[in-house]
Design a protein that fits this description.
The complex is a heterodimer of chains A (122) and B (213).
Chain A: H1 3-6, E1 23-31, H2 38-47, H3 50-59, H4 77-89, E2 90-98, E3 105-109, E4 112-113
Antiparallel strand pairs in A: 1-2, 2-3, 3-4
Chain B: H1 3-11, H2 30-42, E1 51-55, H3 61-68, E2 73-78, H4 81-93, E3 99-102, E4 115-120, H5 131-142, E5 143-152, H6 156-165, E6 169-183, E7 193-205
Parallel strand pairs in B: 1-2, 1-4, 2-3, 4-5
Antiparallel strand pairs in B: 5-7, 6-7
Helix pairs in contact in B: 1-2, 2-3
Classes of the chains: A alpha+beta (122), B alpha/beta (213).
InterPro entries (chain B): DNA_methylase_N6_adenine_CS, rRNA_MeTrfase/Polyamine_Synth, SAM-dependent_MTases_sf, Small_mtfrase_dom
Pfam families (chain B): MTS
Family (chain B): Belongs to the methyltransferase superfamily. PrmA family.
Chain lengths: 122, 213
């Protein structure tokens, strides 16, 4: 699971109001290179929750992203490469996503989070 | 990529081993899948460089077709772990990156507008009544650009009315009418093969809403 996907996911447990972002528990991270697409990155920058991305990437072992970012930084190749790497090249392979409000763990196996809810959570 | 080539690649994908009738698991044939994505890309530019979601992805046919046509990031959603596993293998076969999430589409919580395009071949609602509408409702909530979906032609008026009045669609158009080959997959199927008239829809969500999670 890429961090781009993580950045759009909230805890879906009934009654939870602060379900974003899901905390990440890492057991295995895999890195897969993909081509950098500048236009795509510029578009995504406006839609991404930056702090959640920074926190998530650091949990995954990548600490190159600055705490804060603004769109003028997209002019820098170096910044684009780091943004690209964090957003698309880091994959959570094994671990869990944790609801920040309830602590409930959604397991991640082979890169796939299981967000199926139990009867009492629906 | 040419349409024929796309169709050929999709035809080589692995499909459900033991389809679950309760989930209305039917493979989306390469003929329909290739045309759906080809139209989305060539007529509307809704695929390449976009974030695409495949709701009820099953073995991943639609999502993978999006990847083959240049989608930058594709996510497949399905309730069934076995299907996702097959979809994962299919992605490996095609050397495509595709994320998968196992969940019930009805209680998914995704940020608004993070997804550009939704492509789907949802259950028709023959087993779980209203399943087709649940999928459509969710798709229109999360897509910022367009939703492509397949629904039985017999439901055409109901779909159009509901999408425009209740699901916040600013437009709902039938792009074409197709025949969906339903092969004799299940024991209750009496005929060897049956044609179901199906509409390929394109919906555009109304974007005049504040972003929220």
């Amino acid at each position: 699971m890429r961090l781009l996907t993580h950045n759009m996911l909230s805890s879906n447990i009934k009654g939870v109001t602060n379900g974003f972002p899901l905390r990440i528990e890492v057991e295995k991270v895999v890195e897969k290179e993909v081509d950098l697409n500048m236009d795509f990155l510029r578009n995504m920058f406006a839609k991404i929750e930056w702090k959640a991305l920074v926190e998530a990437s650091r949990t995954m072992g990548y600490s190159e992203l600055p705490d804060d970012a603004e769109s003028s930084m997209l002019d820098s190749d170096e910044f684009l490469r780091k943004f690209h790497h964090a957003l698309l090249e880091l994959h959570l392979e094994e671990g869990a996503l944790v609801c920040p409000e309830t602590g409930r763990k959604f397991p991640v196996n082979k890169g796939i989070p299981n967000m199926l809810l139990h009867e009492d959570e629906v | 990529m040419k349409l024929k080539q796309l169709e050929g690649l999709l035809g080589s994908l692995q499909q459900f081993e033991t389809p679950k009738i309760e989930l209305e698991q039917y493979p989306t044939g390469p003929h329909i899948a290739s045309r759906l994505l080809y139209t989305a890309e060539n007529s509307f530019g809704d695929v390449s460089d976009k974030v695409v979601a495949d709701f009820g992805c099953g073995c991943g046919t639609l999502g993978l077709a999006a990847g083959l046509l240049g989608a930058e990031h594709v996510i497949g959603f399905d309730i069934d772990a076995e299907s996702i596993e097959i979809a994962s293998l299919n992605a490996d076969e095609l050397e495509l990156d595709m994320d998968f999430i196992q969940c019930d589409i009805r209680n998914l919580r995704l940020s608004d507008r993070a997804i550009d395009t939704v492509v789907m071949n949802p259950p028709f609602g023959t087993r779980k009544k209203g399943a087709d509408m649940d999928f459509l409702s969710m798709a229109l909530k999360v897509a910022s650009g367009a939703v492509y979906s397949l629904h039985k032609t017999t439901t055409r008026d109901h779909i159009k009315r509901t999408a425009l009045r209740e699901y916040n669609a600013s437009s709902a158009e039938v792009l074409s009418e197709l025949r969906f080959d339903v092969p004799q997959l299940y024991k209750f199927h009496k005929k060897k093969e049956v044609d179901v008239a199906v509409d390929l829809w394109r919906f555009v969500p109304n974007n005049n809403r504040p972003k929220h999670l």
